Amino acid sequence: NTNTNTNITSTNADDGRRNYHDRSNSSSVTPQPGWLCSEYMDNVAAFVALAAKHRVYVMPTLQRFPCNHRFLALTQPLNESLVSTGNADYLHGPTVHAKAVYLASFAQALKDRIGVELMTTVFGFSLENEARGYGNEPPFSLQNVVVNDATGQPCNMSVPDDRRRLLDNGFAAWATALTAGVHEVDPEAMVTAGMFTYYAVGWPLPVPPGPVGQRDQRFPPDPAHLSVHSTLSYLDIHVYPGPPATFNATADILSEHFSSINRRRVPLLMGEFGAFRKFYPTAGDAISVLQHLMQLSCRALFGFQGWLVWTWDTFEQGWMLWDLADKASAAGTSMATAMGPHHFQLKECV
């Protein structure tokens, strides 16, 4: 069928920008804290309370949703021949709703345990550590279908610009619906979504998703589109320096459609940056490249307002990445001390 019209989101509107907000606000999200593991939420609450005691902010990163029957039931019906599970997270209305319920349930369960006052310990709720669509999976891998985007406009999967529009509008509607889920419980909470750069997956700018042979099949959001068409509080962009001989920090940041990001509306946080040991074998090498990246990104051209090193003490990744608790000298000076005054990362992935 060369013209299969599949309304992935079951949403229609003439005005796309209005629809992003109307779709979120008109769809009621009821928190279901009882659907979450109570022992786990007790542990999260204790973690946040301990962070508050030590005057440290926490940014919970909520990956997808718990794979129990309650949340999975909300994702139905899902025709995986038209939209894969991975792409459904951003393009399929029922799956987006399941995630919104999870956000609201998590926020409610945490609030019930720590109270309103300690909720300010949460710097911001992150909807996904690194959001991305998959170009080699439906619907982007299909050439013979037409699907409707989140605004109700048809997108022909044989047309590259239509595939890009489907992804952009899907991410924007996803972010706005999930932000509304958090705000059902904590109306003043900040909300963000993490993303790696297009440079990190081999592109100079956001490109249309689709099968790309042996190249990386992941396609992150366009932060410029999110800065205008979503209700995110700030953008969380991740940058990891590659090999010194080829890495171009300016090109990496510019690959995020940077000139079009509305920085007056949404601040920029480099919510992950770090140094791989295989590229930067000494602590001095790692410190130098990370300091350079911070200095470059805070200039007026880019204007990042915060940096979170990955990570403080992720010892289980010590074979791969430097962390701030590593020793930077024979005298025992830590990476954190050698880096100087800095906003360090405390990220709890849940």
Can you walk me through this structure?
- Mean pLDDT is 88; it is low at 1-26 and 343-350.
- The chain has helices at 16-26, 38-53, 69-74, 85-91, 93-118, 160-183, 223-229, 249-254, 283-297, 335-339; strands at residues 4-7, 125-126, 133-134, 145-148, 154-156, 191-192, 194-196, 218-219, 235-239, 268-273, 307-309.
- The longest helix has 26 residues, at 93-118.
- It has 350 residues and is α/β, with parallel strands linked by helices.
- The strands form four sheets. Strands 7-9-10-11 form a four-stranded parallel β-sheet.
- 35% of the residues lie in helices and 10% in strands.
Which terms would index this structure?
350 residues; alpha/beta; disordered N terminus; disordered C terminus; 11 strands
Task: Give a concise summary.
With 350 residues, the protein is an alpha/beta fold.
Tally the helices: what do you get? 10
Note the overall shape: globular
Low-confidence stretches: 1-26, 343-350
Structural class: alpha/beta
Summarize model confidence as the mean pLDDT.
88
In terms of quaternary structure, the protein is single chain
Report the span from N to C terminus: 41 Å
Query: What portion of residues belong to β-strands?
Result: 5-15%
- Strand order across the largest sheet: 7-9-10-11
Radius of gyration using CA atoms only: 21 Å
> How would you spell out the order of helices and strands?
EHHHHHEEEEHEEEHEHEHEH
- Number of distinct beta strands: 11
The percentage helix is: 25-40%
